[in-house]
Design a protein that fits this description.
about 130 residues; alpha+beta; 2 domains; two-stranded antiparallel sheet; 2 helices; 6 strands; about 20% helix
Length: about 130
């Protein structure tokens, strides 16, 4: 298997850095560098979109919940108080699992503002697709 990895690495290097592409007539690595320097590449530096403050708000699982008459939402048998949100409004709930610590970090957003954060034990959370 290790011998095959070595052959594959050499082939990738040869193709990317030495071989002329049959359609473009250019070496792929040189073409890519030229496209990057001229601003003609689909690759861009990642930035967290507004109003979010963390990449965790973008790359996470999410659900929408309605605040009940007691200004709470229910998540997997947990009643969570949601301060400063009018009754019966919908909030966005973002779930960020932290398996190393065994917790689910929860970030609750309403009206483009982070309202509440908390961590709950990871046990009991299920994901349905």
């Amino acid at each position: 298997m290790e011998e095959m990895r070595c052959v594959l690495r050499e082939e990738v290097n040869r193709y990317n850095n030495h071989q002329l592409h049959s359609t473009t007539g250019e070496i792929p690595h040189m073409r890519f560098e030229k496209a990057k320097s001229s601003g003609n590449s689909p690759f861009r530096k990642f930035s967290v979109p507004k109003p979010y403050s963390s990449p965790q708000d973008v790359f996470c699982l999410s659900e929408k919940r309605m605040v009940n008459g007691y200004r709470r939402i229910s998540l997997f048998n947990h009643a969570i108080e949601v301060p400063n949100v009018p009754l019966y409004e919908h909030v966005n709930v973002y779930f960020i699992p932290d398996t190393a610590r065994g917790v689910m970090n929860i970030r609750i957003w309403w009206n483009a503002q982070l309202i509440h954060t908390l961590s709950l034990p990871l046990q009991g959370f299920r994901v349905h697709f």
